[in-house]
Design goal:
One of its GO terms (molecular function) is oxidoreductase activity. Helices cover about 25% and strands about 25% of the residues. It has about 350 residues and is α/β, with parallel strands linked by helices. The protein has two domains: about 1-150 and about 295-345, Medium-chain alcohol dehydrogenases, catalytic domain (Quinone Oxidoreductase, Chain A, domain 1); about 155-290, Rossmann fold, CATH 3.40.50. Strands 3, 4, 5, 6, 7, 14 and 15 form a seven-stranded mixed beta sheet that branches. The chain has a six-stranded parallel beta sheet with strand order 10-9-8-11-12-13, sandwiched between helices. Helix 5 (about 150-160) crosses helix 6.
Length: about 350
Amino acid sequence: MLAYTFLEQGTFKLLEKERPVILDDRDAIVRVTLASICTSDLHIKHGSVPRAVPGITVGHEMVGIVEKVGPAVLSVRPGDRVTVNVETFCGHCFFCQHGWVNNCIDPNGGWALGCRIDGGQAEYVRVPYADQSLDRIPDPVTDRQALFVGDILATGYWAAQISDISPDDTVLIIGAGPTGICTLQCVLLKSPKRVIVCEREEQRLQFLHRYYPQVLATTPEKALDYVRRNSDHGGADVVLEVAGGAETFRMAWQCARPNGTVAVVALYDGPQQLPLPEMYGKNLTFKTGGVDGCSCAEILKLIKEGMLDTTPLITHTFPLEEIEAAYDLFEHRRDNVIKVAIEIGEKS
């Protein structure tokens, strides 16, 4: 089968590999029908994810059809259309039992797919702990509607959940990239008093104005004054930092009101500074970490009901055979790209 493979820092290559097989009774083999490229894949390519294992197939955003299941798998059967969770998790350890599946202690737990074990930018993928890691796609929901459920949409949903948003809140979202837009959709489900999005790129601001005219927008250089003028208590009640840029972490705590909440959703390339003397007296609550993707079934239900729709994020589509061109487009942000879908067909 064809599989896009991490060879060494700076090098991915489309290779022929053996199809995956069941290695554990709780495994499933999924025939991938649609995948996508995530910024985290670029982090692997450029050496920002030390856990990534050279030789693995990359990719952790995918949907497909169950091909085969191990004898202990109960929730899915061959022929089921499924989303694949970015996190594989055992479901039994202390962290899984508390819903903190990103911290699953099993060797294949947490973010493993496309990082420590073979992922889904390939024709087939082995998914450990299939009962927890796969969710059946309701019949009316298309592959394109479901594509981001297991990763960036789960991230946005989790971010909105941990932020404890109330109807009286002013919420600031820093970053209007793909994960930022998914976070925005999930924040809007909470019906806060107002939402402000901070974004630098004109194309993304145009996307915001087109699809979310009810949302206020500003740019980084104007953000602090803008948020203070458009909030009730001198800053945002809740800030969600989704950009992961050089200055966005500082912007997040500066734009929060005293006793506000800052949820850090972004994955950074390097360490960030927490200047406690400058922050003294703000009494902020920080919530950080990787997504705990426990709500994929709920997200699929919301998509089915028309409450969430991320299909406008898919601006380009390539076949797997042209994935290198897709990566080049996505990495260099050409042609107003937001997200790229990779169509995958079984080879005879």
